[in-house]
Automatic annotation (TrEMBL):
Required cofactor names: Mg(2+)
Organism: Paractinoplanes deccanensis
Keyword hit for Hydrolase: yes
Pfam family, one: NUDIX
Designated name of the protein: Nudix hydrolase domain-containing protein
Keyword Hydrolase: yes
Keyword list, A-Z: Hydrolase
InterPro entries documented for this protein: NUDIX_hydrolase-like_dom_sf, NUDIX_hydrolase_CS, NUDIX_hydrolase_dom
Domain of life of the organism encoding this protein: Bacteria
Every Nudix hydrolase domain range: 19-122
Length: 122
């Protein structure tokens, strides 16, 4: 999915400074109880449908839009599972998934070498 125009406009003003954006994760189940997954273009891993909200967009509407944009599947948001956000001192961040913890540690270390995940073998 291309970077939304509003994010490009913000980036043109603030450069590469942190840009916290509200996001959504859609858990889509069909009538047989199967879960809808998408293949990530960057890592080729299977994942739930995710995306950032457009300015002023409500989470349920954003989740429906992201599923439609990324999969072409029309869905109805039936319930909200969670909405949590918080600012944390880097020393007090709660446990994160290993990849996210590594990203945070690298970002906080001004002398850290850039790190890129290897492309999966095809």
């Amino acid at each position: 999915m291309p970077i939304p125009d509003f994010v490009l406009a913000l980036r043109s003003k603030i450069g590469h400074d942190p840009l916290p954006l509200p996001g959504v994760i859609a858990v889509v189940l069909d009538e047989r109880g199967r879960v809808l997954l998408v293949r990530r273009s960057d890592t080729h891993d299977w994942a739930l449908t995710t995306g950032c909200l457009d300015p002023g967009e409500q989470p349920a509407a954003g989740a429906v839009r992201e599923v439609r944009e990324e999969t072409g599947v029309e869905v109805v948001a039936e319930r909200l599972l969670a909405v949590e956000v918080g600012w944390f001192d880097p020393a007090e961040v709660p446990p994160l998934p290993p990849h996210q913890a590594r990203c945070l540690a690298t970002a906080l270390d001004p002398g850290a070498a850039p790190w890129f995940a290897p492309s999966p073998a095809r």
